[in-house]
## 1
Amino acid sequence: MDKVVGSAAEAVADARDGASFAVGGFGLSGVPNELIRALHAAGVSGLTVVSNNCGALDSGLAVLLAAGRISRVTGSYIGANKEFARQYLAGEIEVELIPQGTLAERLRAGGCGIPAFYTPAGVGTQVADGGLPWRYDGRGGVALASPPKEVREFDGTPYVLERGIRTDFALVRAAKGDRHGNLVFNKSSRNFNPLAAMAGRVTIAEVEELVEPGAIDPDEVHLPGIFVQRVLALTPEQAADKRIERRTVSAPGAADGTTQGKVSV
């Protein structure tokens, strides 16, 4: 039952070209950076990635993206990742953009063995009707567009059919984990990490704090170890390496109410 591996390289050693990965994280929160770096060092390419976003500030999945290792992304947010936008518009990468809540539920459904579900999100738009650009041709035209999806009415309300997501691997980061793979996530890092972990056939978790089995109260477990196959214990330095995408501080005088607003630096 001891799922701890000795290194990040060992954790991803069986990853191959063309593999699919569900990757946790929300912005820069809860991103499995060490596992992503190990995947980059392994040299694998042609990867299909399912993640809320594709990294930022040259960290997270942006490392693989910049190296040209990703061929397809399923996500809901491009954000300020200029390289992601450039590759998408240039036709270098295929991108399936879907509503954020739908992405979360598709991951959860896949992990629960649910092949598909109906949702009202996207009805009456190209999400349901088809035509969303999945790949551009590099000249402003669309080389590949999304197909139409089944729409069905329940009690007079239309719903679109969405498929559950399963991937070859999942990479996640937890605040705490034990040797059996039981995980605890911190705040917004809980948004997508548990769902990504559920969707992977082989799930690898890097943990900031490794504890012995029984040290985590069962009521505190966010993801049970049944979903996790490998656990990587981070060093204190790795665990403390957390970047801030946009630092915001109060303007001078804001504390006494004389100045309103905030300054981003």
Note: The first helix runs from residue 8 to 11.
## 2
Amino acid sequence: MSRISAASSPSAPSAPKVLVASDLDRTLIYSSAALALTMPDAVAPRLLCVEVHESKPLSYLTETAAALLTELGGMADFVPTTTRTRKQYQRISLPGPAPKYAICANGGHLLVDGVSDADWHARVTARLASECASLTEVREHMEATADPAWVRKHRVAEDLFAYLVVERELLPEDWVKELAVWAENRGWTVSLQGRKIYAVPKPLTKSAAMREVARRTGATLTLAAGDSLLDADLLLAADRGWRPGHGELAEAGWTAPTVTALPERGVAAGERILREFLDGVRQGS
């Protein structure tokens, strides 16, 4: 099929404007424990540190992935999309152009040039107040039923949701299942990611924030990636999505017609996802 430029044909359709919304932790960036460097040391990829916390390196991607992300940032609207709080997100220094938009707190905060959009946040909090149980009720239940023997920290994020930091080897599987059922009946979702157990209101979604960014940017093609239960709505909302071979969604065997399940695990999956994003942008244009 021949390509005809817009300059040579006034009737030629313009290329789609592409928005790429990607989860960060265990999708694009990885802690030391999550890297999954299973290859011989001599052929392991060179890594770039993109997050320092308390003067220690914390998160990485491969140098190849860094170059791919830089290229992607010049071709599409790249929107980091994370359950992290704003403070946790701002520790990350990604390669490439600084994103104009970022989605934090699972959609509770929409950052525009690094500043939370007050109108968006007000709309989200109003919806939470009317559609699900309160954060106070959920937090108190988690504190009352969790065993100090395996809980290391109780945390509230942005006054929007709660999470626990736990010792995974001591964590009773039945407790997580029971919490999930209890939360489901109150309009909340439970997600186990590494050493963290999240309880998040169902109306608090990455997909709603992604749609808002797409509306503002005029995007006509949306691409997304993520590894956890909290990313499922984002993947379903996008025109095309990818998930790595690790994480909650992979463990559950979750997929959808527009979502590709990749075999790669660990930091290699982050590199593969970025290649898929770039291919998707090129095909779209």
Note: Residues 267-284 form the longest helix (18 residues).
## 3
Amino acid sequence: MTATRVRLKFQVGARTLAGVSRRLERLPLGLEAVLSGEIPALPPIGAADGYLVTSLPAAHLDALSGAWPLTAVRQRYTRHHVDLARGHEAWMAGLSGQARSGLRRKTKRLGGTVRRYRSAAEVGAFLDLAIPLAARTYQARHGLDAALSDDPAFRRGIVQAAGEDRVRAWAMFVGERPIAYLCCTGQGRTLRYDHVGHDPDFADRSPGTVLMAEALADLFSDRFAWFDFLEGDGQHKRQFATGGTECLDLLMLRPTIVNRVVLATLGGFEGGVALARRGLAASPLRGWMRTLRR
């Protein structure tokens, strides 16, 4: 592995106020590693400032950090997934009655059609229509990795992966207008929830939720064993998942003076933000605080 520069951010919600760069060995755990129950082995650190382990099961925190002198949990979340071996009927039966009726209602109200893309040629056509749509989405406006990129190297990588049978993509249309997309790549026996977005003009019709349900219906008869919702939370993830693992991102730094100052400053800032958020939660300023976080 090769260490990379990682910017540790001072954030209020999605707004980054400042940051400090550290050279870290990154160890992102895939879903199969998360579900295995095994404690990950750390690669040689070389000249790096430390490690950043992402999606570490919370149950492994003490085992991994206990022998390391300077650590900090950067965020906690549930890594949601769908066990595709259950089959579509069993998955639908696992949804609440309210969720099933809500999904039927949203599907009928949207009145859209779904097109599916798998081969390299099909995925190339998908990117032609989805990349312009992606530029208008919430993900792109906020600089999130979930947005499709218009970078030529990114496009070549997706098309190449499709040629290796490692891409599944879907687009939702109203008439001939694309209004939502989902593009997923395979990692072993797992399909990842990589790139997603929808036209903000149709946000009130829940196109992403409807498209996600259509995609999962296809995947229960595909070759993959799991659908991985990746890091982060969301109502549709909780609604559609068949399981989840409590995970965290763990920062592990060499015990230098600079690194101690960095962690102390980050901890103090984040503690202050949390205190301010609690104090403003019931005050007339709570609307201003939500605006600042966005």
Note: Strands lie at 4-12, 15-28, 50-57, 71-83, 113-117, 167-174, 177-187, 190-198, 226-228, 243-253.
## 4
Amino acid sequence: MRHFKALPLLALLAAWPATAQTTSQIEPRVNKLEREMRAVQRKVFPGGTPNQVEPQITAPTQPVDIPGSPSSGPLATLTSRIDALESQQQSLTGQLEQAQYKLRQLESAFEAYKTATDAKLKTLESTGAAPIAPATPGAVAASGDTSTDTPPTRGSGNGGGTLGGGAVRPPAVTAPATADPARAARVNAIEKPSSGDAAEDGYLYGFRLWSAKLYPEAIAALRPVVAKYPKHRRASYAQNLIGRSYLDDGKPSLASREFYDNYKNMPDGERAADSLFYLADALTKLKKTKEACDVYGELSDVYGEKLSAAMKADVAKGRTANKCAA
């Protein structure tokens, strides 16, 4: 910001005899000061209305008298305009200092948040695996996802909680070949949807396989939905159901990675909150009760009031089962 030296100009005006001054000499300088002040205003308040911080150019009720000059007239008006410019400069400087102070506060708060996040992440990553009874999930009513042991649906969340990165996704699962004719017959009996929406069809087919307890086959059908259509709403459903398949197949360690990835990569996805809930369930099965409590806290902090009453009740049960601190 330029600093306008209006005071030296006033001193110069006071020192000169009034007879030596003409408005034609001073007027351009005052106009230049006002143009520069308006430029500063546009810089400090981009997009603001032209009159947002308009300097006052009307003469004060008690004008400043300059020795040797008339008490009214063009010179007195110019003096008033310079006084207004000085006042406006002080006001702008004060507002800029306040904005800079608030920015420093925000930067400090962000650094504190980042430090806390890193500490919690290291705690979660420093651990590793057998079972206590998990909280019983509630029911969900969603298109294609109607199993009675699915937790309740939540609304879209804000995401971006304090569980940090680092989880490694297990390798992609290909459709398992089976020599068991009975199992092959069960797989072949599952109808493949054909709606024209590849992501929707892939998810629904994986869901039907999961419902039939054909967990490896369900994972093989769901994985391409996540890989090929990450922006589709069913991607969140698919990765959550991959985790559910691992969990129901007795593989909580693999399940926890899928649940964590779903929450981290798609925090606004329709199954992100469900994945956090089941992540706590998987950690409980791995006897990581402290980490499970951390995840329950994360779930409440990030999604809060967006959780259904049924899920809140299940979270409370899970916290009680893990003896989480209040």
Note: Confidence is low (pLDDT under 50) at residues 1-7, 53-60, 127-160, 165-175.
